[in-house]
Design brief:
Structural class: mainly alpha
Strand content: under 5%
Strand order of the largest sheet: 1-2
Radius of gyration: 19 Å
Shape: globular
Length: 343
């Protein structure tokens, strides 16, 4: 029964996002909500924003097929928090918000989740679980915001991650996670059709913050009754490995150069460096899709692995990530003239 509902949720989200995206494109053009080209961006002509509203509408419309009332309080908390961060993104797309204001809004969204009963539940002190919850929500929300730097990248990576969350939910019988994952998968794909290179519309902060927030929620809610928390905590990190690695690379790169990682824009992301190494933009984005798929496959294996096997795999993945970070920093460093450009 759950599978049938998930198919309905996926189809509704896909349809609403696919129909709503070109409509929001027209609205953005008429309202003048455009992403203007600058030296730190890859597009050369103004591109309409507000595609994130179509993603939001797709997810919310799909929830009419959600029928489990046992977790209705948590569902309400997710919807309120996601709506809050999406509205923050719309405001930022339209008028511009400072980094501090966006960060505060994300902390408020995390507090809404905690108030509804959604938080990290590791076998550690309660205060540490609360701190981990806020850090995870704010971190993943911003990671998808930072990842939205090339046509089709954030929406495609979100679709890949949502697909793996859906599969993991199906394997462990988690209806809430599966429902939101199916909605995110459908909405991301419905928007992705218009966002893949050459993009006709961008999701803007309204979409990237919304996607990141919901991905963080799915990572917290995912449970594995047949395994131990000291293993399963790695699963959402692996599924979301691409945005986490990109954010880590950006932070390390900017801190090494004495720049504020939250307020300094620049072409210093993984995608930009791959293009600098000779890949086309499409090839760079497709490669990151493949990396996301590979990490999702590893996450599924880890979810059923023993403690020893899981940590051996995690060590290998961590070492590979470290090598990749150092190699990209040395082989394709960001152009300082681009990194120093003001927002």
């Amino acid at each position: 029964m759950a599978t049938g509902n998930w198919l309905l949720i996926f189809a509704m989200a896909l349809t609403v996002a696919a129909v709503g995206t070109p409509l929001m494109r027209r609205v953005a053009l008429r309202a003048g909500v455009l992403d203007q080209p600058t030296a730190r961006k890859v597009h050369t002509t103004p591109v309409p924003l507000l595609g994130g509203i179509a993603i939001y509408a797709g997810v919310m419309a799909a929830l009419i097929f959600y029928h489990d009332r046992q977790e209705i309080v948590q569902v309400a908390g997710i919807v309120v928090g996601a709506t809050w961060v999406s509205l923050t993104g719309v405001w930022d797309d339209r008028s511009g918000l400072g980094a501090s204001a966006k960060l505060l809004a994300q902390v408020v969204a995390a507090a809404i989740l905690i108030a509804s009963g959604i938080q990290v539940k590791l076998p550690v002190p309660a205060w540490l679980n609360l701190l981990l919850t806020v850090t995870w929500v704010v971190g993943i929300t911003n990671a998808f915001n930072l990842l939205d730097n090339m046509d089709g990248l954030s929406s495609g990576v979100a679709a890949v991650a949502a697909a793996y969350f859906l599969l993991l939910a199906a394997l462990s019988g988690q209806y809430l996670v599966g429902s939101f994952a199916a909605a995110l998968l459908g909405a991301s794909l419905g928007f992705w059709v218009y966002n893949f290179n050459p993009a006709r519309i961008f999701m803007g902060d309204a979409g990237s913050l919304f996607l990141g927030f919901l991905m963080a929620v799915l990572g917290i809610k995912l449970r594995f009754p047949t395994n131990v928390p000291w293993v399963t905590w790695m699963v959402p990190i692996l599924v979301l490995g691409v945005p986490i690695f990109d954010t880590t690379l950006v932070f390390v790169s900017r801190l090494r150069r004495g720049k504020n990682p939250l307020t300094t824009p620049g072409k210093d992301h993984v995608s930009h460096r791959l293009v600098q190494l000779g890949w086309t933009r499409r090839e760079a984005v497709l490669l990151l899709y493949l990396v996301g798929c590979a990490l999702g496959g590893v996450a599924i294996f880890v979810s059923v692995a023993t403690v020893r096997a899981a940590y051996a795999i995690a060590a290998c993945v961590g070492l590979a990530a470290l090598v990749a970070l150092v190699w990209l920093e040395r082989t394709a460093p960001p152009p300082s003239s681009i990194l120093d450009k003001p927002p």
